[in-house]
Write a structure and sequence with these properties.
Strand content: 5-15%
Structural class: alpha+beta
Number of helices: 13
Number of strands: 6
Distance between the termini: 5 Å
Shape: globular
Order of helices and strands: EHEEHHHHEHHHEHHHHEH
Oligomer: single chain
Strand order of the largest sheet: 5-2-3-1-4-6
Largest sheet: 6 strands, mixed
Radius of gyration: 20 Å
Length: 320
């Protein structure tokens, strides 16, 4: 379900075509992004709030839908769908308002005048079109996410320099099976890392948010799986929230053989829906980053993607 490394980012991300992506950002310094740093003895759990809040905030400006995320001790995972065509349907005023809102933290409070900055942008057609393109760009979304967190962390650590390990890693998710497998992979990160025993205890993940929403509104379980933030009225895996939660819960049991009930002979119905055997699902979900590289999908999707990008083989074909 994935591609090889070492190829230009343009082979993975088509700036003109909507798509699902799995993005991973890792810290470069010894100090941790979040959690208890065993070196300095400091606790950085509050930074998890920074990342979650920033993700949700950015999704309100960009043409993006956030389907899964997990904020770990030294890295973050995000599964999202971005649509570069959507900003083309927005009015000039909406584009300007979104951009001014997005860049409000880059301007001093003394100089921050929403109406004035919006009018100024509307009077610059060339700049406005550039902004319109950026609002549908995956790279610009990740730039606004990581740069903000890096600035806050550097200020707190009283240091300067690189905070993230180079550019974010990116995998294109070519089909529904790939999207669901990657969402489950991200949602199960705390369980695989031994930081949580169950889904409800998986802090700073979307699966926890989905479960809490079901607690508040039980009927939500039978609605179609959708983005947790941002553009919700877009293409999404055609299963219910309940089916997805059951699938992730079952996968979590087999991912932790040391936990009671790890082997469950009753497989979730969602596996039949996406035409995947338990062994296939386990092999893909529990090692997506290791098995695949820059693309995830069925053999048919991988071969088509390889042909479209001028390659003869993509890593992960055998696993897929």
């Amino acid at each position: 379900m994935l591609v090889a490394m070492g190829y230009p980012r343009g082979y993975t991300v088509d700036p003109n075509v909507p798509g699902f992506y799995h993005c991973v950002s890792r810290c470069v310094r010894r100090a941790w992004l979040c959690g208890e740093d065993p070196v300095s003895g400091r606790n950085f759990d509050h930074r998890r709030d920074w990342v979650e809040a920033r993700l949700v905030d950015l999704a309100e400006s960009f043409a993006v839908g956030l389907y899964a995320w997990a904020v770990m001790s030294n890295h973050t995972h995000v599964v999202l769908r971005i649509d570069p065509r959507m900003p083309q349907t927005w009015s000039d005023e909406e584009v300007a308002v979104r951009w001014v809102r997005l860049t409000r933290t880059l301007v001093s409070k003394r100089d921050y005048d929403v109406d004035r900055r919006t009018r100024t942008l509307l009077e610059q057609p060339k700049q406005l079109e550039e902004v319109r393109t950026r609002l549908g760009s995956l790279s610009w979304f990740m730039r606004f996410l990581n740069e903000c967190i890096a600035r806050q962390a550097n200020a707190e650590d009283e240091c300067t320099g690189r905070f993230w390990e180079g550019r974010f890693k990116c995998q294109v998710l070519l089909d529904e099976q790939a999207v669901l497998a990657c969402m489950a992979y991200v949602d199960l990160n705390p369980i695989r890392a031994g930081l949580a025993d169950d889904l409800m205890g998986s802090d700073f993940t979307t699966i926890q948010r989905r479960l809490r929403r079901i607690e508040r509104k039980p009927d939500h379980a039978d609605t179609r799986l959708a983005a947790m933030a941002g553009q919700r009225a877009v293409a999404a895996p055609d299963i219910t929230v309940r089916a997805y939660v059951e699938l992730v819960e079952w996968t979590g049991r087999i991912s932790r053989p040391d936990k009671r009930g790890a082997i469950d002979v009753k497989t979730p119905s969602a596996l039949d829906r996406i035409r995947g055997s338990p062994d296939w699902w386990r092999g893909c979900v529990l090692s997506i980053e290791a098995v695949f590289r820059s693309a995830v999908g069925t053999p048919t999707s991988l071969r088509a993607h390889a042909a479209a990008t001028g390659r003869r083989y993509l890593r992960g074909l055998q696993a897929a």
